[in-house]
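Lecture 7 notes: from sequence to structure.

We start with a single chain of 127 residues. Read the sequence below before looking at the structure.
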Amino acid sequence: MADVNRGNRPLSPHLTIYRPQMTSMTSIFVRVTGNALLIGALLVVWWFLAAATGPEYFAVADGVITSWFGDLVMLGSVWALWYHLLGGLRHLVWDMGYGLDLDSSYMMGYIMIGGSLVLTLLTIAIV
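Now the structure, written as tokens:
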């Protein structure tokens, strides 16, 4: 039988009801950084293909990758790589059954954020 009262019932909970949590936000950003790494990877692949194509085309690709925009994308890619790696390590720890309590989850989230920033700065300093 059709539910005639369907329009009066509340919708399922939405993002406006829930307060963002450290675990959900870090998990979302792991997914975002994984997809964002594709942009940096495509830029590097384009640079290599341009190098194989010829000097004129390589000059264009090299100009883009060494511009302020290319530097920004590469900096973001380095940060995304470290953040994504630390997120993967966190999930590996969780898969082993450790750190599943709320305090440990929050601590690992802060370690992911801080660790990715420190490792990015170290990478820039070394390179």
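The CA atoms of residues 14 and 28 lie 16 Å apart. Keep this in mind for problem set 3.
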